[in-house]
């Protein structure tokens, strides 16, 4: 069997490793012109379930490198007011002590570099899919914009939110605008910036719930111990310079109708001023963090989400990750769901390659299960970021915010309720 994978993102590369280890012939085609074209220096959160899925896909040596290039794991998950008052705080170590390697923070471009290792001869850059064609003999040919083509037995669309594979395979699939807009940036970690965070904020990840449905996230990324570890330098000398500098990242979001102005097209400096305008009246430490952010690191994002699909007739062309279930970052489930897809689809394709299951039947088994868990993840993620929610209204929103904070404070005070709430949060991210 030969599997063509369109897209060298997290899910596509994880799938490629699993298949290659099982002896399946693979080829990955990526629209970026070079391996380092992905310059995004932003964090991606990998849950324990995401780490388990990744470990099932990649060689042990590569998994060790992934763990070594992650930032210090967050100890706390905090829910705060815009004045940085605690509403609810989970101690991740206490809540989930047996989870594989715990919660992970990794820089997206570094994770991509890790996953490209060992696939240097299997990933082809500068390949933008134009169309694909199925043939009567069961083969499928991918045609690229540069005039080249590739033929295999299976084609997997792992080409992200703007998937060309999805556009042809599932033309009825669509994305919708959530009405939520966001901006974010990061600052170097210094004595001055670190002093702006409480101990729990520094050691964890914090979500802020503010009036008018505005929200924010604060997280700190520390790589200092890894950079100074002679063992790391000896084992992976070519990765020492790839480690990001320690930083504190922040993100801010809200409904379009409540933004003072549209962030689209604004410069980094204008986005910083917009962030300060939105957070007027918030805790001065949070505003100081925004004020100290270099404009070059600030970007805006328009939140979109997939409209859940009904099952379709399976074939030798399938999809994984954002290509089939784009979701908002409201639950931090996007990358984790893509890794879950890769592990599941990989197992099914290996079973087909080894003659244990007919190919289309194997792909159908993957698609049925993938639709089940991804639909829940899409819906749960949208609940956190939907401009139509009452939270974004002036009066009723404040009432709802007060009620939500009251419930969370009650949960925070009762250990049994706290454990249950943590399990529910992690279930959407792949935990049973």
TrEMBL record:
GO terms of molecular function: FAD binding; monooxygenase activity
Keywords: FAD, Flavoprotein, Monooxygenase, Oxidoreductase
FAD-binding domain segment(s): 301-380
InterPro entries: FAD-bd (IPR002938), FAD/NAD-bd_sf (IPR036188)
Pfam families found in the cross-reference section: FAD_binding_3 (PF01494), NAD_binding_8 (PF13450)
Keyword Flavoprotein among record annotations: yes
Domain of life per record: Bacteria
Protein name: 2-polyprenyl-6-methoxyphenol hydroxylase-like FAD-dependent oxidoreductase
Native species: Rhizobium pisi
């Amino acid at each position: 069997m030969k599997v063509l994978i369109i897209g060298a993102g997290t899910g596509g590369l994880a799938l490629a490793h699993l298949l290659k280890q099982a002896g399946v012939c693979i080829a990955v085609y990526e629209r970026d012109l070079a391996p380092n074209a992905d310059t995004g220096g932003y964090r991606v959160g990998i849950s324990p379930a995401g780490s388990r899925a990744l470990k099932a896909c990649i060689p042990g040596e590569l998994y060790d490198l992934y763990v070594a290039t992650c930032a210090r794991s967050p100890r706390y998950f905090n829910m705060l007011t815009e004045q940085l008052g605690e509403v609810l705080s989970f101690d991740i170590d206490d809540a989930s002590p047996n989870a594989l390697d715990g919660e992970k923070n990794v820089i997206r471009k570094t994770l991509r570099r890790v996953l490209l290792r060992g696939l240097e001869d299997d990933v082809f850059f500068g390949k933008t899919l134009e169309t694909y064609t199925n043939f009567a003999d069961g083969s499928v040919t991918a045609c690229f914009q540069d005039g080249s083509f590739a033929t295999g037995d299976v084609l997997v669309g792992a080409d992200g939110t703007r998937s060309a594979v999805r556009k042809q395979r599932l033309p009825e699939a669509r994305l919708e605008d959530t009405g939520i807009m966001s901006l974010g940036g990061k600052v170097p970690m210094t004595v001055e910036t670190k002093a702006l965070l409480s101990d729990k904020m520094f050691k964890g990840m914090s979500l802020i719930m503010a009036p008018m449905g505005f929200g924010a996230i604060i997280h700190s990324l520390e790589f200092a111990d890894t950079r100074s570890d002679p063992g790391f330098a000896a084992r992976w000398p070519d990765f020492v310079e790839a480690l990001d500098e320690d930083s504190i990242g922040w993100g801010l979001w809200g409904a379009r109708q409540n933004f003072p102005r549209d962030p689209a097209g604004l410069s980094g400096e204008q986005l910083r001023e917009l962030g300060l305008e939105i957070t007027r009246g918030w805790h001065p430490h949070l505003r100081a963090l925004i004020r100290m952010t270099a404009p070059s690191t600030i970007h805006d994002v328009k939140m979109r989400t997939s409209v859940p699909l009904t099952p379709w007739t399976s074939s030798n062309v399938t999809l994984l990750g954002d290509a089939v279930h784009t979701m908002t970052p409201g639950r931090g489930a996007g990358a984790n769901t893509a890794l879950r897809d890769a592990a599941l689809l990989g197992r099914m394709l290996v079973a087909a390659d080894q003659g244990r299951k007919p190919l289309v039947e194997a792909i159908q088994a993957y698609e049925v299960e993938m639709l089940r868990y991804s639909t829940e993840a899409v819906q749960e993620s949208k609940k956190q970021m939907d401009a139509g929610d009452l939270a974004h209204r002036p009066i009723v929103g404040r009432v709802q915010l007060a009620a939500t904070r009251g419930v969370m404070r009650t949960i925070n005070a009762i250990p049994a309720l706290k454990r249950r709430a943590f399990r529910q949060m992690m279930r959407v991210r792949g935990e049973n």
